[in-house]
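FAQ: What does a ligand-bound record look like?

Like this one, built around zinc ion:
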Amino acid sequence: MSYLNVEEYRVRVHRDDGEVDGAVWVREGQEWELEAANLHLVADASAVPETRPDVFFARLKETLEADGVRLLTCGTCAFFRRSDAPDDDGWKGYCTWSSDELPISPPEHVTLLAPNCHRFAYRQGPPEPVDSTWLAQARSAEEDQEETAVLPQLDKPRGLIGIVRRLLGRTPATRPAVPTAIIERPGGQPCPCCGTRMTNRASISNVDETGSERIFSVWRCPHCLGNFLDDWLEAFVGSRARDAERIYVVPPAEANMGVKMVARCPRPDEKGCTCVANRHFDTWGDFLYQHGRRMKHRESVVSL
Ligand SMILES: [Zn+2]
Ligand SMILES: [Zn+2]
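The answer part, i.e. the structure of the complex:
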């Protein structure tokens, strides 16, 4: 983690009355400060300025727990494992979440403070260290993964081109194996957790029930290493602009699955396709929305 003068992270905390969104500020050479609803807490100042992020994190967690508040971040998640890289100082770790549909995949770093995702499961005590057996297994899983994805049948070209092609007995040109919609593009929209410009990993254009465009994008933050799904709805642009963009924190395994799914769509950049990939994103976006996982609209980006 590289400290700027002041860093702001979006977090979520749990109290007796439920979960609330808040923010944590990190100031160089000082302690944490957290604000969530009417809660305003500052970790005890130490005589010697603390520079290790993992010590900062542990102190923040302890301070909050003494007040009956649980910090809902990767570092308190049952699926989080502390990194084995000495340079990471325990700030970074791995998300070990997997399921039958999304089996263990190459491990990916996440940071302690990225807010909890919908797979979050609270655990007490310090984060578990990474298990070398798990790490080796996860890394080797990359080579085993076969690209079994089959592109769905393209609709027959309609109109004049279709007629001419059928008359000439020509088949449509085969599409490139990697659609342009999964080329990684850095420098995109600001991270909803820390404000750093994120990398767009893939996008796909869907259609909602009104016929308007619904664009899903998978993002990753190069600074806080958070993974996000952005669900943008054309129907809400204008009168309900606030509802036009829904952003969710997702575990790396789901983000990777999303990118793979986009590769299965023959035309991810054109609305109208209803292949397995488009259906996957509709289901994913609807699930996250119905479970109230939408992140708060970000008013400002703070990295002073
Ligand atoms: Zn970030
Ligand atoms: Zn498609």
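Follow-up question: can I read anything off the structure? Yes, for example: The chain has a mean pLDDT of 79.
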